[in-house]
Design a protein that fits this description.
About 40% of the residues lie in helices and about 20% in strands. About 25% of the residues are buried.
Length: about 120
């Protein structure tokens, strides 16, 4: 089976590099982006099996990106990563079309387990 491809959109360079490294070690192909500007171009070059998107991005935030992904008919699982802890955030994120929300700081192994479970579903 081919390695699954994940697009990671995270503006924090350190967080992005650390998570990218861990995902590579877990057997994922990773396209790491600083923001959502090149997301559609990236997905045209190599379709993704999953998308991880930070909620607080410069420019278009994560919710706008999730809505754009779904409006394009892209149905792969999307997990939103966030440092925000707001009431109703899970409902808001799901309403935008995401499959899950993971609060920062998160355990990387738990995140990878959730990613694998979503792929298997």
């Amino acid at each position: 089976m081919a390695m699954p491809h994940v697009v990671l959109i995270e503006d924090d360079a350190l967080v992005r590099k650390l998570l990218e490294k861990r995902l590579l070690l877990a057997g994922w192909q990773v396209s790491a982006l600083r923001d959502g500007q090149r997301l559609m171009e990236c997905l045209q070059q190599q379709p993704a099996d999953m998308i991880l998107v930070d909620l607080g991005l410069p420019g278009d935030d994560g919710l706008i990106l999730v809505e754009r992904i779904r409006a394009q008919g892209i149905t792969v699982p999307v997990i939103v990563l966030t440092a925000y802890d707001l009431p109703h955030l899970h409902a808001t994120v799901r309403g935008a079309g995401a499959d899950g929300l993971v609060q920062k700081p998160y355990d990387q192994e738990e995140l990878i387990a959730r990613m694998r479970a979503l792929l298997a579903a």
